Amino acid sequence: MNPPSPHPGHPAAHSRLHEQEQVNRQDHEHDHPHDHEHDQSEILDLDAEVLAEHIASITAWLPVASSPSRIVDLGCGTGAGTLALLERFPEAQVTAVDVSDAHLDRLREKAAAAGAADRVRVVRADLDAPAWPGLGTPELVWASASLHHMADPARALRQVHDLLAPYGLFAVVELAGFPRFLPGNAPQDAPGLEERCHAALDRHHAERLPHRGADWGAALAEAGFTVEDERTVTVDIGPPHGDAVGRYALSSLRRMRGGVADLLTAGDLTAFDRLLDPDGPHGVLHRTDLRVRTERTVWAARSLQRPVPVSPHG
Question: Alpha-carbon distance 42 to 78, whole Å?
Fold first, then answer.
């Protein structure tokens, strides 16, 4: 739920929503953590802006019998999921959890701008810690692009199971990978560059993010949940579109470059840098053929635990 470069157990891995959620949490070391967090916040905000319709479609699909009044967003990032949940469930209070102060500050700003500041409680916490802070007894827990960054996701699933109200719902959202933006024959001087970068990044992540692509349905069942439904949301946003898509592509591909620079040929790296030049004629900001292509899979899992009966004799 999700990104930069931390190792799986690194606390920065829990900033949430999007592989961006993804490359945001994409794992390469950074010499300037404050700049890194700023860049991460920017890309999460762009992800939320560009994919707002798809996030809303997921919250609308959630199999809830009645609107939850208490929601927890685990690894909330800058608030894409939090704000979508607030809109979907207008009577709900959301506890938004993340390890990044910068992300939580940005979430506060966005909630205030939306007139929902009084409906959001922010909690700074490392979700890899053995014990979590008090998060109440929510009827709905949302985790978008965050589970696969955890050092021990099985433990986290059990913690969510214990946290939920009886018959509560756990929504897990995971992305298929880093979004694609370029046509296959681009750029002209290095056709297929983006796919080569994805292949290199996948090999890199196989070592650094071992839980990416896990069978979350089976993991949820193992933790005691009943998976009620599963769906895959295909994202394909083509032209014409606003300039947010260009900025999203630029920020995302900059992140990707950080993860693959040492794995590319000199020719590919030169072509990549031309794409990243905001003023150059071949830069992504000047392309009219960009598409945002990715997939998200969502699992809706129910906690069927019943309240423990209280003995009349104490």
Answer: 9
pLDDT, one tens digit per residue, over 204-252 is 665 665 456 578 999 999 999 999 999 999 999 999 988 999 999 999 9
* Contact (CB, 8 A) for 99 and 129: no
Contact 140, 52 (CB under 8 A): no
The vertex-79 CA angle with 287 and 138, nearest 5°, equals 145
Domain 11-181+211-241+295-303: which CATH number of 2.40.40.20, 3.40.50.150, 1.10.238.20, 1.10.443.10: 3.40.50.150
Strand 140-144 with 292-303, pairing? unpaired
Predicted confidence (pLDDT) per residue in 270-285, tens digit: 999 999 999 999 999 9
SS3 annotation, 73-85? EECCCCCHHHHHH
Torsion angle defined by CA atoms of residues 114, 116, 122 and 128, in that order, rounded to the nearest 10 degrees: -70
pTM: 0.83
Question: In this structure, what token pair is assigned to residue 267?
Answer: 């020719």
DSSP summary character for residue 118: G
Residue 312 class from Cβ within 10 Å (0-12 exposed, 13-18 middle, 19+ buried)? exposed
Contacts of 83 (CB under 8 A, 6+ apart): 48, 110, 111, 114, 116
C-alpha span between 22 and 24 (Å, rounded): 5
- Edge-to-edge, what's the strand order for the sheet holding 292-303? 120-124, 93-98, 70-74, 140-144, 169-175, 292-303, 225-237
Beta-bridge partners for 172:
143, 299
Say how far apart CA 36 and CA 19 lie, in whole Å. 15
Contact 61, 231 (CB under 8 A): yes
Phi then psi dihedrals of residue 22, to 5 deg: 175, -75
Cβ neighbours of 36 (radius 10 Å): 19
CB of 167 within 8 A of CB of 303? yes
- The residue type of 186 is A
